[in-house]
Design brief:
Helix content: 40-55%
Order of helices and strands: HHEEHEEEEHEEHHHHHHHH
Structural class: alpha+beta
CATH architecture of the largest domain: 2-Layer Sandwich
Number of helices: 12
Largest sheet: 4 strands, antiparallel
CATH class of the largest domain: Alpha Beta
Number of strands: 8
Shape: flat
């Protein structure tokens, strides 16, 4: 490195005074942020997000697009380190990687990214903890580096949020809670069982979960919580109305009796069923909005209810079929 380059680098890394925030500077800054948000909306696809609950989390593919668009550089700083830790289940390990992401103007952020052998995505199978010997340590190491990259990008550009990869373990944990027995429900999640079945088996698994001598007590506590959540959702679920709320009018101007349930138009039945899924939280509004954007972009910018009403019967039936494949429910 020559002397000139060294001086330039030293000057760039020294603290610089904050720019004067004139009205013009504020307008330009706000405009840049708005353009950045527009870029995210146009460049990132549903495949670049992981959805959990009502929130979206950008995954590595999305952060990579942002890095390329902003000409940002990233590098791993030093050697990753492995740490040994202990919890109620015994010994486990954590890989930690440190990285630096540098913007084109020289501003940089250094962050750690970690992944442990307790990560639910790698360590859980059918609701049970896998032995450490069955977990590929290279996957844990690679995920630590991925989390490091994602977190550096997130903090540099002001998101400050966890990435999709970091959140996926929590989603996997929720999905992995399934009945280990008896045959009637074995392998099913509580969401896939009816209310009577859930109430039937809840006392059995509460007893196992509260037994301190049972080695699967912690896993059964998660199952009990999932059963209770499903019972609450299914109990609170509002049934579909048997007929439209409005009274049909005859040609002679006199009101006629309400139509029976079977006379509800098919499109209206589909809309009612979709709303039931939303109320029961078997699918979320962000997930449905992404599905609409992916398949029928003419609905972009519409409120969800207006977007659904603008669709044809076949399109609504397609949505119900998709919900069924996503959540294992019946459309």
């Amino acid at each position: 490195m020559n002397e000139t380059t060294a001086l330039e680098r030293t000057k760039r890394e020294l603290p610089q005074p904050l720019p004067k925030l004139t009205d013009q500077a504020i307008d330009e800054l706000v405009g840049s942020i708005q353009q950045f948000e527009k870029f995210k909306q146009r460049a990132l696809t549903p495949k670049d997000y992981m959805i959990m609950g009502d929130n979206q989390y950008i995954e590595k593919s999305g952060w990579t697009k942002l890095r390329l668009a902003t000409n940002t550089s990233f590098q791993i700083v030093g050697d990753a380190r492995k740490e040994i830790a202990h919890d109620s289940e015994g010994e486990y390990y954590v890989w930690i990687a440190r990285g630096r992401v540098t913007a084109i103007n020289g501003v940089f952020v250094e962050m750690d990214g970690a992944c442990s052998s307790r990560d639910e995505f790698f360590s859980m199978a059918d609701g049970q903890r896998r032995p450490s010997s069955e977990i590929d340590e290279k996957d844990i190491f690679a995920t630590a580096e991925t989390n490091c990259f994602n977190r550096c990008m997130s903090f540099l550009y002001g998101f400050g949020e966890l990435s999709g990869e970091e959140m996926r373990g929590h989603e996997f944990e929720k999905k992995a809670v399934r009945f280990p027995f008896p045959d009637e429900v074995k392998g099913k999640s509580p969401a896939e069982c009816d209310l009577a079945t859930l109430k039937k088996y809840l006392p059995t698994f509460e007893k196992v979960a509260n037994d301190p001598k049972n080695k699967w007590a912690e896993q059964n506590k998660k199952l009990v919580a999932a059963i209770q959540e499903s019972i609450a959702e299914k109990t609170a679920k509002v049934e579909s109305p048997a007929a439209p709320l409005t009274q049909p009018v005859k040609d002679d101007g006199k009101e006629s009796p309400s139509s029976p349930a079977g006379d509800v138009p098919e499109k209206e039945q589909c809309l009612i069923r979709i709303n039931e899924h939303l109320e029961a939280k078997t699918i979320t509004r962000p997930q449905l909005n992404i599905f609409l954007h992916k398949n029928w972009k003419q609905t972009d910018g519409m409120e969800l209810e207006k977007a659904l009403n603008s669709l044809e019967l076949l399109q609504l039936q397609t949505i119900l079929a998709w919900i069924s494949t996503q959540k294992g429910t019946q459309g």
